[in-house]
Amino acid sequence: MARTFDIQRVDNLPPQTVNPTDPAIVARIHREGEMKAVGFASRADAEGWLEGFRWPVEGPISGSWGNQRVDNGVPKSPHYGVDVAVATGTVVHAPASGVIAFANNDMFLEGGLVLIDHGQGLISMYLHMSRVDVQAGQHINAGDPIGLSGARGRATGPHVCWRMKWRDRNLDPSLAILGLANARAELGGVRLI
Predict the structure, then answer these.
(1) pLDDT digits over 40-68, tens only?
(2) Can you point out the beta strands (E) in the chain?
(3) pTM of the predicted model as reported, rounded to 2 decimal places
């Protein structure tokens, strides 16, 4: 099904998170990219994706997946996350079981960042957290707390940016909630919608 995407303008972001010029910050972003690549390469022997997914937090959607982003007036890549506006300190829950593939409390662009490997190369991500309460290699169940929401990194206010990748493809995590439930039901012979 074809989708249309809006343009979302985000102003008042910290300038160095939009167009970094400080050599130390550029080097840090590069090092952190290498660290995240290790997390994205995770291939845990897990089947959390078969359980279906639930929202990691509940609140209004403040940023949709796929929208063209214009940060501080500078056109950027599409937004590959769903932003859920919640107060700083809201508990963020694992939407399905898996293994923590990466956890860091202080990433330059993402703030507190957690990657969960749900099996078959399906990785979900949680950005801008004020606190991370899990460690790489830790097994978690659906509903387990993984940290607290925040507004750290490239953010203008408190929220959780929920992202999902299957191998190298960006997926809309909000579609996983119903889409995976339907796929699971079809495997069992029952269609939900």
Answers:
(1) 999 998 888 888 899 999 999 988 787 88
(2) 7-10, 61-63, 68-71, 74-78, 82-84, 91-93, 98-107, 111-117, 122-129, 131-132, 139-140, 145-148, 160-166, 169-171
(3) 0.86
